[in-house]
Write a structure and sequence with these properties.
Elements (H helix, E strand, L loop, with lengths): L6 H4 L102 H4 L122 H10 E5 L1 E2 L6 E2 L17 H5 L9 E3 L4 E2 L2 H4 L7 E4 L13 E2 L21 E3 L4 E3 L6 E3 L27 E5 L13 E7 L2 H6 L1 H12 L10 E7 L3 E5 L8 E5 L14 E3 L4 H14 L10 H12 L4 E7 L34 H12 L2 E7 L7 H9 L4 E4 L5 H17 L2 E11 L3 E7 L3 E2 L5 E7 L4 E7 L8 E11 L5 E13 L2 H6 L3 H15 L5 H22 L9 E5 L5 H9 L13 H13 L2 H8 L2 E4 L1 H5 L27 E5 L3 E6 L5 H8 L18 H15 L7 E6 L5 H5 L15 H13 L2
Parallel strand pairs: 5-26, 7-11, 12-13, 12-17, 17-18, 18-19, 30-31
Antiparallel strand pairs: 1-27, 2-3, 4-6, 6-24, 8-9, 9-10, 11-26, 13-14, 13-16, 14-15, 20-23, 20-25, 21-24, 22-23, 25-26, 28-29, 29-30
Helix pairs in contact: 7-8, 7-12, 9-10, 10-11, 11-17, 14-15, 14-16, 14-17, 14-18, 15-16, 15-23, 20-21
The chain binds zinc ion (ZN).
Zinc ion binds next to loops.
Length: 1013
Amino acid sequence: MGTENPGRPTFPSRPASSPFGAAQPVTPFSSTGPVAGSEPPPYRPTPPAPPQAATPFSSAGPAAARPGAPGFRPAPPGRFSDPSIPPPPRASNAPPPGGPYQQFPAAPFPPTTQQQQRAPMMGQASQAPPFPASLPAQPQMPFVPMGSPPSQSAAPAHLGPNAPPPTFQPTFPGYPSKQAGAEMQAPPMHSNFPANQGNYGPAPPAAASPFLSHQGGYVPSPPMAPPVGMQQPGSVPPMGSVQGLAEDFNALTMQTRPGTMDPLFDPKELPRPLEGDVESKNLADMYPMNCSPRYVRLTTSAVPSSQSLASRWHLPLGAVVCPLAEPPGGEEVPIVNFAPASVVRCRRCRTYVNPYMTFTEAGRKFRCNVCTLLNDVPSEYYAQLDATGKRVDINQRPELTKGTVEFVAPAEYMVRPPMPPVYFFLIDVSISAVRSGMIEVVANTIKSCLDELPGFPRTQIGFATFDSTIHFYNMKSSLTQPQMLVVSDLDDIFIPLPDDLLVNLSESRSVVETFLDSLSTMFQDNVNLESAFGPALKSAFMVMSQLGGKLLIFQNSLPSLGVGRLKLRGDDSRVYGTDKEHGLRLPEDPFYKQMAAEFSKYQISTNVYAFSDKYTDIASLGTLAKYTAGQVYYYPAFQSAIHGEKLRHELRRDLTRETAWEAVMRIRCAKGVRFTTYHGNFMLRSTDLLALPAVDCDKAFAMQLSLEETLLTTQTMYFQVALLYTASCGERRIRVHTMAVPVVTELADIYRLADTGAIVSLLSRLAIEKTLSQKLEDARTAVQLRIVKGLREYRNLYAVQHRLANRMIYPESLKFLMLYGLALCRSTALRGGYGDVPLDERCAAGHIIMTVTIKRLLKLLYPSLIRLDEYLLKASVPADDLKSVERRLPLTGESLDSRGLYIYDDGFRCIIWFGRVISPDIAKNLLGADFAAELSKTTLGEQDNEMSRRLMRVLEKLRNTDRAYYQLSHLVRQGEQPKEGFLLLANLVEDQMGGNSGYAEWMLQISRQVQQS
Ligand SMILES: [Zn+2]
């Protein structure tokens, strides 16, 4: 799996031929240094070149020079940046001449086109003030080696406990100080064919850097004597790593099955993540000023010092970023405003000022922690240094003490006025939608959220509905009720009323409310079966393209009319196991990908809510969310009476959570390392700029990292995530997360600092992407193989005498990896084949895995199972005492007692399991009169008794731990088949089930494969 680059077909890199000086997308972030156009320099390294004069922005290439471009007005981004993009829909009833669709090539979405698109955020030359950051590509300044060549003899002094505090920055004697005036960028080298970390040839042995003794806060690994029996076997690991291993080593011993020679593991000894996700604290002591792991987690909190070392780490090397995660412990992210000055950044690599930058020369200079350039401190930012070399104002400067801050972005970070929050709803009103009751739930929920939509009083809102025609609604504030305008020509879509379909919510509030009140009755007698979804999507685009925003799609029938109609291709048992299998999981019609690309370019993020009881082609529809930083919500066979509550909560969350608009994100790192692949829902705008038309706290993104240099000579690597976005209040902001990570020379350290959660998140995303080009089985095998390789390498590190055949050796940090790997292979997205999971459900599950945070993913893979009856029967418990129901049980049938009541919670649903001989009192109290009825027809509601109230409190608590999704409760009785099987038993991942391995067998398989070397 080391060669995996599943993003390739969908998020291609720039063409290799992209000339060095070609017009580069000048995004607001272009100031962020390594701009797309500057990579990949084919002849790097270049000799130091004289700095180029700071030319204004207008030299940004042909894009900015579109002749006849009108003066500034709020316009869809990209309008001026790409001559190929036609003007927006005109303000007339006529279809726009050469409407936006004519540019689509007839051929299926060619992967390279998106690379050639100009960046949507690019401004017209005259719109934005020139700022030096957006210089055209410049020759790169080669990095000056930091100090003398590494010495072989240096001992790993950094492993000692006496390392200086992390704030200490080494000096860099080899670095020339004469840099003033140089307007240089040092882009990381980007290749179109990222080296596969596993394929590097042997590199020189890792060597300690000369700075080791100065090193700031490298991991304190308590010195300890090598354990008895652990001598250093001549050829392998030096003492330091053996110590590390000794500290974290873990092993399982196989036993022999009674009466046979078959080996087995004792299930009682197998490690289980019953505490859920535990955020790694590895770096908290070393680098207390790092951002919280809630925002950024690395698969190992260390960077290997050499390519050869990296190639021995067979697990993914990379990061999982949740840029807008809710701050830990209710803290607030400090907002820093440098106005009227600009944001303080390194003028070469564009890193934002952060706690790891050091101030010198009496406070007049600061040294960039990422590229080591000595910068002038802007006069507005000057402060004296105290006797210890700290700025005297440090306590008033959160950007110098906190790993996470938000900068208010000045005008130069905008190419148009910050957009207002925009919500546009596209609702299916065909007969199946009406019958499901979805329309009413949606209308009522939207209405109940109107006061909480972010961005008052600027928020804009609009609606369209569709069956075989498209219906628009004039919501002009002067009307007393909305006017419906029907468009029935699906081949030549136009919008009948360009100005009043998207309106200011506060001005048109009463019209909007009237509309929502009448929406469900308006169509209650509709018998139209058809779905002109594609044309409706195009018209929604026309309405929204001026501003961008969030498009929420409520879809109940397979698109049947006009462009984008889909076939009832469904699932096909014959292609499973063949090389055609993955085609089922790919979008059928390029229309959806093309639309998604347009949406992204015009800052529109798409959330798809799908409700059908039949095949609805989530594979195609999901594409809309995939490339626009959106989300897929799937409610198969939706019935409002059953699923209404879930939809209500999830839609409410979607509408009211804090949202970052028209965002772009980039993660920077110091020279020597670069991010090569990205995994999640976004469109890649240049090699490393993620376009996120809307993003929120429930979205995470993963990326893989590789070393671009044979050997790293620094001891600390820095990462900085920058998310440039428009806040709902209308302020343009940059959220910056900074973290420092040690560079290590020992494989054992990489293992010791491993973060299973981040590894599983990356591994899962890679596996899902693999299912889009290969068989399910191949994706599962790849997961297993990667785990095996990782453990085998670890085993080889270990002293020979400990590699006994009946022992499985693994690092403490990875003790849950094997189980999560199994759970991933048995997840809805990956398990089995035809008939094991409905195709749409499988695709929807894949979409979920690609976006969720680590915590939620781990909960989904290894859900919690909790026994409840004892708690419910207790004589008295304080209302808030839920401690006793926090004890999670192993996910195996053996945990279930037929006298008990259990709750299984995977974060998406709760399954309440009634044991066969449960006390009738419990059933009666919880279910009321229905207690003896068929449970599938029973919904759980609060009864008028203490026991029922207690259960409701438990459910509420479970739901409140993470509100991104709502757990609907399903009731099932022991032995009630087949319901018990698919709801619960199939999800007890430790049990052998059908063709699936149980935990103990899985461990045995892995253990055997590890030993086959
Ligand atoms: Zn720098």
